[in-house]
Every structure is written in C-alpha cells, then in structure tokens.
Design a protein that fits this description.
Helices cover 54% and strands 14% of the residues. By secondary structure, it is an alpha/beta fold. Bound molecules: guanosine-5'-triphosphate (GTP) and magnesium ion. Magnesium ion is lined by residues 112-113, 136, 142, 188.
C-alpha cells in the first residue's frame, strides 16, 4: 500500500468521530452553516480549537476573494490551506556527516525503540552503516528490545548494564562509530524516569556529550509522539521542545485510532515539521511524511 492508501485506511476513526465524512460536508453550499459544521468537524478531528478556527477563517477569506461558491471548490481550497499549515520546515533528515546522530526522545510507550528499528532497516537499505545506542538504561528490557531490532536489521548496537549512565552509553557509541566508520548513530532514550526533571537533565547531559564529542556533526533530535493521544501529545511536545531543541517529529500509530487533525495541530502549534509517520508495528511501517498526500487522504 502506498502513502495515500495507508493514511486513508488509518483515518477511518476520524470519520466515526466527526459523525459523518468530510465528503458529506463538502456536498453542499458554502454558507454559514457549512463553516460552522466544518469548524466543529475539524475540532473533533483533534486539530485543536485554535488551528481549526484559523483554517476556517482563512477558507472564508479565500473563498470570498477567489469567488469560490460550491463546496467542492472549497474542499480544494481547504486542502491548500492545510498543506501550507504543514509546511513548517525541511521534511528530510539531515544526516550527512560521517558520523551523524539521530536522538529519539519522547514519553514512554510512544514508539521510540520501534521507530529506531524501522529507520535502521530503511537507512541500511540506502547503503548506510548504522549503529544503535541503547541509552535507555532505565529498564534492562529496553536494551534487550533494541538488541532484537539490531539483529533483525543486521546493524551494530552499543549497550551497557541496566542503570548505567545513558551519557556514558552515548560516549561509547560515538567512540565505536568513529572507529568503525559508521554513518549514522541512532540513540534510544528512556521515556520514563523518576520524574520529568530527571528525564530532561538526562537528555541535556546526552546533548552535551554529543556537542563535545562530535562538534559540527549533523544531528537530528526527533520527538516521537503517539498520534492516538491527540491533544495530550501536543502538551508533551511543548515540554520537550523547551528542554531539547527538537528538529522533527515522528508521529506513530497513525494506523490505529488516531484522528488525523493532530498532525496539522502539531506542525502549526509547534512550528516543527512532522518528518516520518508510523503506520504499524512492522519493519516496513515507517513512511516519510508527505503533506499534500496526507491532506488529500484526510479531507
Ligand atoms: N500500531 C502501531 N503500533 C506501534 C507503532 N509504533 C510503535 N508501536 C507499538 O507501540 C508499542 C510501544 O513501542 P516502543 O517502541 O516500545 O515505545 P517506546 O517509546 O520505546 O517505549 P519506552 O521504551 O517504554 O519508553 C509497541 O507495542 C510497538 O509495537 C505504530 O506506528 N503503529
Ligand atoms: Mg523504548
């Protein structure tokens, strides 16, 4: 299945939640009732009140200035507006230096480890030498889970004992990467610590090691968010954004009960691009995000 079909299948929940499909909504006239219903539907799709209102306001403005009268024309216009909302930065991963580093952060259970596994397979397929760093030392099972992915993908892993200093694991991984001619180091981090401050301190310490050991190297800090958590995910994202400079979002579980609008809300409210989406638990279920295709499947 291609991007469009996967997304379309994943967003069946949006339809259930807004009580009807966008198709039905876009069947009639562009009157006041239409705009009210559209705003409600967008809010119910997890877009957030602010972003939904902005989108509808902009549609009203453009429909007037471009003399769009029928709803089908309105649909095309709305698609354009939402695609613009999603256009907040470069969608590709900039991992060109050798080595370069991608750091995966996010609360527990969102899909960090799984995403690293999927991305490893993808990068390896492009001919890159990948190394995983098991810097989630909070639970022994975390490194075990990453190790299973490393075996599945046939890539190297650096790990230490449970409770080891995550920054020390990163230090080891970078030394190994330099010695082995690795292209990309993927760093898994803990989602759960005794408290949020500990987690943020730990991420800062890892970040300082990267600055010191690999000055000038390309680095992506990818915040992994579970799309099914809706607006809660946005609150988490704002906290992480303050603690660590996020360069991109990986939005997982868009195959599940996610409602789609959250994708637009994240890009719009955080100003950080969604770079990849997770559409299942399998090794091939990670896709580069395609804004225009996404919006077409959504609306
Ligand atoms: N349906 C679906 N499930 C996913 C996706 N990504 C991850 N999962 C599942 O979500 C669960 C949690 O994934 P993990 O990768 O362990 O999440 P994590 O962020 O590493 O979790 P912690 O290490 O506990 O912080 C697993 O059962 C994954 O298979 C996705 O895109 N779709
Ligand atoms: Mg994990």
């Amino acid at each position: 299945m291609g991007f469009f079909d996967k997304i379309k299948a994943g967003l069946t929940r949006t339809k259930e939640n807004i009580g009807h499909s966008f198709d039905q909504l876009f069947a009639g006239e562009l009157d006041d009732d239409f705009y009210d219903e559209l705003e409600e539907a967008l809010i119910l799709s997890d877009m957030g009140v602010e972003t939904a209102m902005e989108a509808v306001e902009e549609l009203r403005r453009r429909a007037k200035s471009e003399k769009i009268r029928d709803a089908e024309g309105g649909r095309e216009c709305l698609r354009g507006i939402l695609t613009e909302f999603l256009d907040v930065g470069d969608l590709s991963l900039k991992l060109d230096t050798k080595p370069s580093v991608a750091l995966f952060i996010g609360v527990n259970g969102v899909g960090k480890t799984t995403t690293i596994g999927k991305l490893s397979a993808h990068l390896k397929g492009e001919g890159k030498r990948v190394l995983m760093a098991a810097a989630d030392t909070f639970r022994a099972a975390a490194a075990d889970q990453l190790e299973i992915w490393s075996e599945r993908c046939g890539v190297d892993i650096v790990r230490q004992h449970e409770g080891a200093d995550p920054a020390a694991v990163v230090f080891d991984a970078l030394s190994a990467a330099k010695a082995r001619g690795t292209d990309v180091v993927l760093v898994d981090t803990a989602g759960r610590l005794h408290n949020k401050q500990n987690l943020m301190n730990e991420l800062n310490k890892i970040s300082r090691i990267l600055d010191r050991e690999l000055p000038g190297a390309d680095r992506e800090t990818l915040l992994v968010l579970d799309a099914t958590t809706g607006q809660n995910g946005l609150i988490q994202a704002k906290q992480f954004r303050e603690a660590a400079g996020i360069t991109g979002i990986v939005l997982t579980k868009l195959d599940g009960s996610a409602k789609g609008g959250i994708v637009v809300a994240i890009a719009r409210e955080l100003g950080v691009p969604v770079k990849y989406i997770g559409v299942g638990e399998g090794i091939d279920d990670l896709m580069p995000f395609q804004p225009a295709e996404f919006v077409k499947a959504f609306i």
